[in-house]
């Protein structure tokens, strides 16, 4: 089981927090940013680390299927239902959206088991483009076993939210280097 936990931890699939949990079955469609479309956009893009040079374009491709995660779910006799859309960005962005801000990870890890929900953020987009589709998905674990070879159980994947992300361009960012006009205080 330690190998299993190590594999999940290495890709950011393991998180531990204690909080109130909203069931993954709660349907969330289009997401809206807390405080409006521009309020948290730069902070969100910064946290996602998808536009490190600040040019308003994606720094790399984000594929429709994340092969790393797809491989993770093919072990032992774990039955996986649902699909993880996009490439995982290994950061939780629930707090940025009105519809998901109350959703909390509650993955419980025992000696030989993992149970509960974990929220994952994924993106689909093309390097050099200014738009991407962002998804928040819930992975509900009910997995146990004493080794990777003997692990069994289920992982249910459900997309709970989608956001059409347009990266802020350098022109749309406020200029903080402007001088105060002379004669004004």
From TrEMBL:
Region spans: Disordered: 166-185
Keywords per UniProt: Signal
Q: Secretion signal: which residues?
A: 1-23
| NCBIfam families reported for this sequence | LP_plasma, XXplasma_LP
Protein name according to UniProt: Lipoprotein
Q: What is the lineage of its organism?
A: Bacteria, Bacillati, Mycoplasmatota, Mollicutes, Entomoplasmatales
